[in-house]
Amino acid sequence: MIRVRELSKRFGQTLAVDRISFEVARGEIVGFLGPNGAGKTTTIRVLTGYHAASSGTAEVAGHDVATASLAARRQLGYLPENVPIYPDLRVVEYLRYRAALKGVPWRERKAAVARAMAKAGVEDVARKLCGQVSRGYRQRVGLADALVANPPILILDEPTSGLDPNQRRRIKQVVRDLAAEHTVLFSSHILTEVEDVSSRILVIHRGRLRADGAPRALVAESAARRLRVAAACSVARLVEFVAATPGLEVVRSAPQPPDGASVEAAVAAGEGAARALGERLLAAGIAVRELAVELPTLEEYFHRITEGSDRQEELAHGAAEANA
């Protein structure tokens, strides 16, 4: 439904988006992640026709957004971060007006507005002025606007920005419910929300695509695993066993009263290292109280491939300069 190939966007000397490529299939909810200034909103604005790409291509439902802009935009419902609603119109009036602008036939307009309000959960404020509803409802009115022409694709840019926890919860449930009938590209910097809602994530940083896949799969493939082991022996002996196991690097250790110790280690070789350590401790007759490998959180993974990768690049660059 969405296809991006080698897309770049420049603003003067600034390269905001740098040759990114991805696809979003029918029925997917895809989270679009990145730090502030990473290029998420710029990419979205190219997809929605607000900006022209500097190079590369973007297609929406088979229509090139550069050469067939109107056809592409008819397939899209767009919710920007700051919803531009008219405060002096009632919610239902605003949505009827927006339906007219989007070319919904007048005979179908009433039903289209009712359907959009039901999906977005704003029926109970239909007669209120847009300027008098809460921020959470304003976001949902914006979502109803995106839905009023019943487009197959929705692009939501920070839909929960500035909302309280209850409002964010409601918006997330609305987005989940939309997956039955719509393809959704969901931009956010709140990682837990994206993880809750999305079946797949794209991570963009400094204009480049850094990751693409299911959240759990990306985290599981990460090298940043931790092993925790507790056993009935001295700290020195447990550290010796862990350090001697290939794929494990001791991070910290501590006594565990009354007669044991615990060690945390970085894991480079996955579950095999944990199994090998357990077998060696068992063979030595040491009682193991705990042995577990923990995956990093999505937040830790995100940090590693954004700020963490920046730090690695800085260190590599510094080493190269020192050796020059």
SSE order and pairing:
Elements: E1 2-11, E2 14-24, E3 29-33, H1 40-47, E4 55-60, E5 63-64, H2 69-74, E6 76-79, H3 91-101, H4 106-120, H5 135-147, E7 153-157, H6 165-178, E8 183-187, H7 191-197, E9 200-205, E10 208-213, H8 215-221, E11 225-231, H9 235-243, E12 248-256, E13 260-267, H10 271-283, E14 288-294, H11 298-305, H12 307-323
Helix pairs in contact: 3-4, 4-5, 11-12
Kindly describe this structure:
40% of the residues lie in helices and 28% in strands. With 324 residues, it is of the alpha/beta class. It folds into 2 domains: 2-220, Rossmann fold, CATH 3.40.50.300; 223-294, ACT domain (Alpha-Beta Plaits, 2-Layer Sandwich), CATH 3.30.70.260. It has a 6-stranded mixed β-sheet, with helices on both faces. A 4-stranded antiparallel β-sheet has the order 2-1-4-5. It has a 4-stranded antiparallel β-sheet with strand order 12-13-11-14, covered by helices on one side.
Summarize this, please?
The chain has 324 residues and is of the alpha/beta class. The chain contains 12 helices and 14 strands.
CATH class of the largest domain: Alpha Beta
CATH architecture of the largest domain: 3-Layer(aba) Sandwich
Tell me, what's the shape? Answer: elongated
Got a strand count?
14
Proportion of residues in extended strands: 25-35%
Fraction of residues in helix: 25-40%
The CATH superfamily of the largest domain is: P-loop containing nucleotide triphosphate hydrolases
The main β sheet shows up as: 6 strands, mixed
What is the overall pLDDT average?
Answer: 88
CATH topological fold name of the largest domain:
Rossmann fold
Question: How are the strands ordered across the major sheet?
Answer: 6-7-8-3-9-10
Please identify the structural class as seen in this structure. alpha/beta
Number of helices: 12
Poorly predicted spans: 309-324
